[in-house]
Design a protein that fits this description.
By secondary structure, the chain is of the alpha+beta class. It has helices spanning 3-6, 10-22, 27-34, 38-46, 53-63, 67-76, 146-162, 171-187; strands spanning 113-118, 122-129, 137-145. It has a 3-stranded antiparallel sheet. A hairpin with a 7-residue loop joins strand 2 (122-129) and strand 3. Helix 2 crosses helix 4 (38-46) and helix 3 (27-34) crosses helix 4.
């Protein structure tokens, strides 16, 4: 059996290892940054394991790989085929759902759903958009350490508390306030 048959992702692994070494980063540093075990990163670099789309995207982002090189890595991982988000086996364009997501601000991706996956090393948030599709489409994935997730939770709570919409006092509260003010004026 050839190496390619036994290790179909050897070229991908070698490229990822070369990038890591050029950046003078250890296996421990990179695996910690993308929240996978050192053993898993080693298997990926040896071509023994194909990284999931999420992990490959995290590696590409962590290494700062530019568009053309990122596309090559994506292709080496076998993710160059278009995704069939509606999970139908038909390639007929008339049977496929078409979705256009337009952001008001192109730097912001809006979503109407989120799935949170947590394990002993970190948390991954999978944001999705369900409008007009049989299955929600993933719009963004964000991975972080558990400590960072707790910090995010704290920040979200504080931000939401500070940005609570003001409510007008109820008519009962207004009457109490008016009576209190009238009593103060009567005492003068």
């Amino acid at each position: 059996m050839s190496d390619e048959t036994q290790l179909p992702f050897k070229t991908l692994g070698e490229k990822l290892k070369t990038i890591r070494q050029k950046l003078h980063e250890s296996v421990a540093e990179v695996s910690g940054a993308v929240e996978i075990s050192e053993q898993q990163l080693s298997r990926i670099e040896l071509g023994q394991e194909r990284p999931s789309e999420d992990i490959l995207m995290l590696l590409i982002n962590h290494f700062g790989v530019q568009d053309d090189d990122a596309a090559k890595l994506w292709q080496l991982a076998g993710y160059d085929q278009p995704h069939d988000h509606d999970h139908s086996s038909s390639n007929d364009p008339q049977n496929r759902a078409m979705v256009m997501i337009m952001a008001v601000d192109p730097r912001i991706v809006y979503s109407d759903g989120v799935q949170v996956v947590a394990n002993n090393v970190g948390v991954t948030l999978h944001f999705s958009q369900a409008s007009g599709t049989p299955q929600p489409l993933t719009t963004a994935r964000v991975g972080m350490s558990r400590e960072q997730a707790y910090g995010l939770l704290h920040t979200l709570q504080n931000t939401l508390e500070q940005s609570k919409p003001r409510q007008l006092p109820s008519s009962q509260n207004q009457n109490q306030s008016q009576n209190s003010n009238q009593n103060k004026n009567d005492k003068k």
